Amino acid sequence: MFETVRNAFKIKDLRKKIIYTLLVLVVVRIGCQLPVPGVDADVISQWFEQNNSLDFFNQLTGGSFSQMSIFALNITPYITASIILQLLTIAIPRLEELHKDGEEGRKKIAEYTRYVSIVLAVIESAAMAIGFGNGGYLTEGVSFTSVSVIIVSLTAGAAFLMWVGEQITEKGVGNGISIILLYNIVSRIPEDMASLYEKFVAGATNVTNGLLAAVIILAVIIGTMVFIVILSDGERRINVQYSKKTQGRKLVGGQSSHIPLKVNTAGVIPVIFAGSLFQMPIVIAGFAGVQPASGAGATLTQKILKVLNQNSWCNFESFGEFKYTLGLVVYVVLLIFFAYFYTSITFNPQEVSMNMKKQGGFIPGIRPGKPTVDYLTKVLNSIVFIGAVGLSIVAIIPIFFSGAFGADVSFGGTSLIIIVGVVLETLKQIESQMLVRHYRGFISD
Fold first, then answer.
1. 118 and 81 in contact (C-beta within 8 Å)?
2. Predicted TM-score (pTM) of this structure
């Protein structure tokens, strides 16, 4: 990785792109510190300390949500809009046609995504402004002016970051939205590592226990990262043979190729979907003043919220608390379900089979048509299951250590998958641009 970056800095054009990306990220970080007018940031921070149900959302925004800065929504409306448009592609024929229409179709879908992002930003900022106003977190109370200022500020911040992401994609390196998301997550890691150090290393009873704790923490983090890299790069290649055919006086074709099926076909989407389903009731109840609770005095709603709350899972202190780990079982089932669901809408075996048949391709030993579709479906199902199990392991590791040992950190399996995925994808783009420039130089000589 470091060798790739060092070589990239030797190329003037790539060096300018990398520096441009870094400077833009500095602007993003400065914006994360600018408070929204009319909001009592100190009260909001105290509310977040008591309400840890939004830790993941705060992680995606780089801590700007807990500080209630103008970038509090960050790029989350754009991410949500992108997922919505992807899901609607299979339900709306017009979007499906645009998706298959090449570059022009993708530009149109990107335009729709921007519009949906702005609508979502307005809805989310309005809900936050009204909710915080009813909770007494606004300095000037609930009024049309105060709510309007908050809505405009948060929506403008989300729109600006969306524009900044597109500028990074165009003039910088990597996918801009992914780079901003990566930067937000990484910016919170030093604080989390300091918290782990204070609790398990500096707070250990003796030096030996402190060193052992440090070794275990590093081993878990490095092992998880290596496992994610293997999971992200793992793929099953299905060989495809193309028959020879005559074009004019020439005999063309006869090449062999392959269909790469990623082990983790759905990426981080299943974790986001499952986590959102669990967090949504907790967030809504939190704004209504209802917190997860257990014990004789707790209501049924509070007990259900306790089951949905990830901080209640894997607690071995008592059986009364451990029973709430039932939510973890439901969480894993949802992960596997969404892995199959998302893969089914992004990879169509029947369409792949038809395209192969039109191009004169076939899988050795498998007849074209329905047998090919059945074979691809069978292989895909087994691959998706392996990927879903691997994804579940990555998601469970931070939850287990948090519940069993109290290792509370804001980054989890989702964040680590995003970090590894974005870093690998960005490095691949840098290497491809270096390769193109190498060939250009070779031709010019």
1. no
2. 0.77
